[in-house]
Write a structure and sequence with these properties.
This protein is α/β, with parallel strands linked by helices and 340 residues long. It folds into two domains: 186 residues, FAD/NAD(P)-binding domain (3-Layer(bba) Sandwich); 126 residues, D-Amino Acid Oxidase, Chain A, domain 2. It is 30% helix and 35% strand. The strands form two sheets. It has an eight-stranded mixed β-sheet with strand order 3-5-4-11-12-13-10-14. Strands 1, 2, 6, 7, 8, 9 and 15 form a seven-stranded mixed β-sheet that branches. Helix 1 packs parallel to helix 7. The radius of gyration is 20 Å and the shape is globular. Bound molecules: flavin-adenine dinucleotide. The site of flavin-adenine dinucleotide has 38 residues, from helix 1, strand 7, strand 10, strand 14 and helix 6. Flavin-adenine dinucleotide binds next to helix 1, strand 7, strand 10, strand 14 and helix 6.
Length: 340
């Protein structure tokens, strides 16, 4: 079997993995992804302030945005009949374009291997053996260090024997319609889900409607109910399904901190209240890259990542409030007095 070798192998070229590759400039590294880019990661592509700050500093081009490019956030609480708009200016991007652009920012020192799936990892006396399949052929990469940036279904996390966090099944329909939607709506309706659903405008008279549901939910049934409730009609032009992580305190893991590290959603870095994971991917990836550059990633990553872990912890309590219709009322009232 052909064997390649490297000092650092990053698995996953989403916002987290690309941020590591972009930050490390002086070492030859390998970045692997099972997809060929541009790839479609099911995601609404909304950017919170933290994401915008990082991406604008990298000169985020205008063409990655959908229309409208900024959206206020509207909380639609069906259980309590409350509708509140919060001025937010969430960036409304096309996630396919965003990730493709992020990938183009990686340096020439990175050997990018697309269409390459990692099947298993094995400890060896010289480092870690990572088995991959590329073009139908099995190969092995011998690496000193591995970064698991492989998202909600992380193979690296599984190899470490760490259970995945609680995951929800997300289903989204993209609808061609003349109906004008001008905000990003977060919909709370406990009859459908104890997390939330969403509705937002995308390009060319297309809106996206979807939600995070318990596993084994019948996607078409719940989305039909949601569309009826939100009075959305039109032609379904695309359907997507994926998993969304909702971490609790025990789910945040940064790896074994010797030679295997976890970042992004694979580490549990995602907001358990909104499912916002782009900023966490960008930030944890950059923090790992900077820690690696010091030559002591084992010590530095553990220290530098602490504030991000704390941020996820804080959002866990917010998620609990939002999941409970009674507690949600006071949260929403604290945002604004505008009530139906
Ligand atoms: C429906 C939905 C809507 C969302 N909306 C938003 C939003 O609006 N805003 C927001 O901030 N967040 C949103 N999120 C969350 C966000 O998409 C993720 O948290 C974010 O993409 C995590 O980034 P990452 O780099 O850690 O992982 P990912 O972006 O998931 O990247 C992981 C990469 O690893 C690759 N990979 C996985 N396994 C292997 C393997 N075995 N071998 C090789 N490659 C592999 C995948 O192909 C993928 O490219 C949403 C998520 C979902 C499901």
């Amino acid at each position: 079997m052909e064997t390649l070798s490297t000092d650092l192998l990053i698995i996953g070229a989403g916002p987290a993995g690309c941020s590591v590759a972009r930050t490390i400039k002086d070492k030859e590294i390998i970045l692997i992804d099972k997809n060929k880019f541009p790839r479609d990661k099911p995601c609404s592509g909304l950017l919170v302030e933290e994401s915008k700050e990082i991406l604008y500093s990298l000169r985020l081009p205008k063409n990655v945005f959908s229309t409208p490019s900024n959206l206020d956030l509207e909380y639609v609480d069906i259980d309590n009949n409350i509708d509140i708009i919060q001025k937010k200016a969430l960036g409304n991007t096309d996630r396919i374009k965003l990730d493709h652009w992020l990938l183009k920012l990686i340096g020439k020192n990175t050997n990018l291997m697309e269409n390459t799936i990692v099947t298993k990892l094995e400890k060896s006396s010289d480092g870690i053996k990572v088995f991959i399949i590329k073009d139908g052929k099995e190969k092995c990469i011998l690496t000193k260090k591995v970064v698991g940036a492989d998202g909600a279904t992380s193979t690296v996390r599984r190899f470490l024997g760490i259970l995945p966090p609680l995951r929800y099944y997300t289903a989204q329909n993209f609808i061609e319609t003349n109906k004008k939607i001008e905000t990003c709506k977060f919909i709370y309706w406990n009859a459908l889900t104890d997390w939330y659903a969403w509705l937002l405008p995308k390009e060319n008279n297309v809106i996206e409607i979807g939600g995070a549901f318990q596993m084994k939910t019948n996607r078409d049934e719940v989305l039909k109910l949601l569309m009826e409730k939100m009075k959305i009609n039109g032609k379904i032009i695309k359907k997507t399904n994926w998993l969304l992580t909702k971490p609790s305190i025990k789910d945040i893991h940064i790896g074994n901190n010797i030679n295997i590290f976890l970042i992004g959603e694979a580490a549990g870095f995602i907001s358990p209240s909104t499912g916002e994971g782009i900023s966490f991917g960008l930030r944890s990836g950059t923090i790992f890259g900077e820690s690696f550059n010091t030559g002591k990633p084992d010590i530095e990553y553990k220290n530098r990542i602490k504030p991000l872990i704390e941020e996820v912890y804080q959002k866990i309590s917010k998620a609990e409030v939002l999941a409970d219709p009674k507690q949600r009322i006071s949260f929403l009232k604290s945002i604004s007095k505008t009530e139906k």
